[in-house]
Each structure stands twice: as structure tokens, then as C-alpha cells.
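# step 3/5: fold
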Amino acid sequence: MFELPIAATLICALVGVVFLGLWMFYDHREHAWFERERRKTTFHCIRCDRLYAAPAGLELCPCPRCGHQNSRLRF
């Protein structure tokens, strides 16, 4: 069978690979969530004069206060 130093080295390497894989998985998941939350489209309601944000990719979005459909701001 394996000698003690070789077995200890293999176990340490296996634990290191598992932790590295978990770290990469959770880092990728958190980065994707952050990017999704960061990318917003800004809208200005012409009826109640309110600025609000909605998820990216929308061209029309109702105002949360009065419900009027507004187009996105273009700079």
C-alpha cells in the first residue's frame, strides 16, 4: 500500500483541489449575481417626475408610483 508521507500528500492535494473547486464555483456565482444586479436601465416618469431603475434590456417600463408606461432614458 502507500507509505504515510505519500498518502498524506495525496489527501492534502485532494482537499486542496476540492477547496479550489468550491472557491471557483462560488466566486463565479457571486460575480454573475453582482453583474446582473449592477446592470440597470434608468427611467424617468413624465407624469409624476420620478426616476427609477429596472433590469437591463427593457425599453418600456411602468412607473412604480403611478403606473404610467415610460421609455428608458437615453444619454
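# step 4/5: annotate
The chain has a mean pLDDT of 91.
# step 5/5: archive (pending)
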